[in-house]
Amino acid sequence: MSLFKDRPRLDLDHAASIKAWVRARWGLSEDTTIMVTELDCREPGCPPIETIIVVLEGPGRTKRYKIHKAAAEVTGQDVEGLTDESHADRH
To answer: Could you read off the pLDDT of 13-36 as tens digits, one per residue?
Structure first.
């Protein structure tokens, strides 16, 4: 019996596309680290899987965005809809 869900791995080609859309959206350089992952959402009313995008621009300059769908379903239009005001890691 497995304690972990058998979920398909994140498609690396599509993750690369998401990163490219994020770079284009904010004009980020290739030196900026962008991470894309999926998380199970356990909050009431939340879809079962959400895509998390983290942008690491430098010390103390981290932004985290959520798209409420699986990464395989994320489009360039979803990324275009993200705003600086929508990121969750405000300090």
So the answer is: 999 999 999 999 999 999 999 999
Q: Which residue has the tokens 């360039």?
A: 76
How would DSSP label each residue in 14-76? HHHHHHHHHHHHHT--TTSEEEEEEEE--STT--SEEEEEEEEEETTEEEEEEESS-GGG--H
Q: Which residue has the tokens 């809809």?
A: 81
Lay out the sheet containing 49-58: strands in order across. Answer: 33-40, 49-58, 61-67
Q: What is the CA radius of gyration of the chain?
A: 14
pTM: 0.81
